[in-house]
Amino acid sequence: MKNYKHLTFPMSIFLSIFFLLPLIFVIFYSFMEKGLYGGVVNVFSFDAYKQIFQRSYQIITLRTLLIALEATVITVVLALICAYAIAQSHHQTLFLSLIVLPFLTNSLIRIFAWMSILSTDGMLNNLLLKIGIISNPLSLLYNRNAVILIMVYMYLPYAILPIFSAIDSFDFSLLEASRDLGATKFQGIRKVLFPSIKNGINTSILFTFIPAFGAYTISLLVGGKDSYLLGNLIVDQITKTRNWPLAAAFSLLLTLVSIVGILYIYRRPSYAKKSKKYQKGK
Amino acid sequence: MIGSEVIVDHVSKSFDTFCALGDVSLKIRQGEFFSLLGPSGCGKTTLLRIIAGFESPDSGNILLDNENVVALSPDKRRCNTVFQSYALFPHLSIYENVAFPLRLKKVKESVIDEKVQYYLNLVQLNSQMSKMPNQISGGQKQRVAIARALINEPKVLLLDEPLSALDAKLRTNLLRELDRIHDQIGITFIYVTHDQTEALSVSDRIAVMNHGKILQVGEPYEIYESPSTGFVANFIGETNSFTAVVEECEKLNETNYLCTLMSKQLGKIQITDYEETKPGQKVSISVRPEKINISLDEKNQFPGTNIFSGIVEEPVYAGFQSKLFVRLDNGTLIKIYQQHKKYLEDGPEINYQDRVYISWTAEDGYIIEDIEN
Which of A176, A191, A196 lies closest to B90 in CB terms? Predict the structure, then answer.
């Protein structure tokens, strides 16, 4: 067969222009001195990286990491349950289109919709007041929980789809085989189903964690003081404090954490190590 | 090792409105190689799954060595299954697949190693143990599945059409090997198949099933020589099979229907059957090789039905008879067994590359199996 590999070269041009070049710019900016009214002065400097490790910034970084992790865990657990239910259901197409449906609306609009539900005189509070469960409206917005809730809502569809496609292509007779060979239901799920859909789960972890870690709009709109994230910090450094090198350094930090996450998740599978022990008799 | 006696006691099972098993009773002896034989949809796999514990019967009991196991889940029963699709765990190596049941039981590493080696040796796959399932062939996969099913030392091995996904040559080899493993281990084998040659060649006894009922239980020779129903007679034995679509079906008398069918391989043919078929229905038809008349002269044929012409491709002298393979003009190959008359004096009546005329009466053809959809 003829080799058409060389025909993929436009892709590398595309990738260079839209991914590599901006990244190189960010790297350059992070090693320069800040300009007085924004932008950078062409003088090499480590200032930005010294600032990153200031205590107040460390707290924000750690907080962002924690919130992103919490949102990821909740989202992926929910996604597993949903994906399993959809894969087992007879109405797959219906459920899948329901999952994709929210994408037809702008994400900002969807956040505002949630705000109208959660606000002090919003739908949820009114409902709870009417039933009589609470006597004073709850402040559901502008805090950490609201940020995590909206993150889960926003990223759940992205998390469901890869897990769904993994479960959908999983051969369920393998679970029967595991039962037949002496595994309990739980053991079968842990030792056969999970390893088989591991790639799907990993993908959905990345699809949730990476955008959650860099989230900005969500915490801007529904977050409070306890949920000021790296994303907000970067924007403020550019628009308010006018410290572009610091913003660039934080952007690189985000990118770096994401890359480390990707490398960790797609590392060599553990079974390869295990079975290597038994390569006798060869 | 000693196998279990398996008693199927008045077992019924329905899926929605479809009756898969209707009051089936069966006694399988200790250490027997027992086959459940029947066309697809006859309930044989359902029965196997009920014995394994994957399905629970609507009524009736399953007894292993006189202990009722109906309420036990599959992991609690001392029987293991070899699946048609192999069902090897794709994320585990061959070694780990076979070791899987022992790892669940937290058996000591040295014992695991010894046992895995033993059973992989039994299926002659020692050299492949570090490979992953997607790196080995279908036949090897099924061997791994057999080793994995045996490592728990079950009392009954259930085999669900284990060879049907393999090609014919591998099938014969693996079948012989199954027979050897059965002799070596001595546990009860329950073997589900739709292939009568497989069943006849390895089984101690066979149960022929159709429409959720057991039609006949017996040793292979009993089933072949004295079939109890038309269906059994039809289903067992060497045959020429073709697929066809029913064009017309008229009632001849109380028990017989005369069907006119259109077959891709043959053209228009006529066959009588015990059951009515509807026009447009797709069916499998079969004609036994010994039922076909063959002659060099077209006028020697019975008048009317099922006359075809072709070239003798491969005449095989086989002692009491000759086996002839005739290539019809449209390319279909037909197998014919012909009794000899005076072979020594006259030599063979029909020779290689002769143009011959073959025919069979409508009564000698059988409609065997409705092809689903």
Answer: A196
**What confidence tens digit (pLDDT) does each residue in B233-270 have?**
668 777 777 888 888 888 888 778 888 888 888 888 88
Map tokens 């789960």 to a residue: A201
Q: CB burial class (10 A; 0-12, 13-18, 19+) of residue A11?
A: exposed
Give the closest residue to A138 by CA, choosing from A148, A147, A128, A150: A128
Which of B50, B102, B124, B130 is best to mutate for the A interface (most A CBs within 10 A)?
A: B130
Q: In chain B, which residues have their Cβ closer than 8 Å to the Cβ of A274? A: 96
Residue type, A23: L
**Sheet-wide strand order for B333-339:** B293-295, B355-359, B307-318, B321-328, B333-339
**DSSP letters spanning A53-68:** TSHHHHHHHHHHHHHH
Rounded average pLDDT over A29-37? 88
Tell me the C-alpha distance between A190 and A198, whole Å: 11
Phi-psi region of B43 (alpha: psi -120 to 50; beta: other; left: phi over 0): left
Is 50 exceeded by the pLDDT of residue A243? Answer: yes
Considering only CB atoms, which chain B residues are within 8 Å of A275?
92-93, 95-96, 130
In this prediction, residue B285 carries a pLDDT of: 78
Tell me the sheet residues that pair with B353.
none
Domains and CATH numbers, chain B: 6-235 (3.40.50.300), 240-370 (2.40.50.140)
| Contact assessment for residue A261 and residue A210, using Cβ atoms and an 8 Å cutoff | yes
Residue A12: partners with Cβ closer than 8 Å, 6 or more residues away: none
User: What is the least distance, in Å, from the CA of B184 to any CA of chain A?
Assistant: 21
DSSP A191: I
- Per-residue pLDDT tens for A120-153? 888 999 999 999 888 888 888 999 999 999 999 9
Tell which residue, B286, B279, B273, B277, has the closest CA to residue B242: B286
Question: Which structural domains are found in chain A, ordered by start?
Answer: 25-263 (1.10.3720.10)
pLDDT in tens, B166-207: 888 888 889 999 999 999 999 999 999 998 888 988 999 999
Give B287's strand partners: B240, B365
What gap in Å lies between CA B259 and CA B269, rounded to an integer? 8
Determine, for residues A181 and B105 on separate chains, whether the beta-carbon distance falls below 8 Å: no
Q: With an 8 Å Cβ cutoff, are A176 and B87 in contact?
A: yes
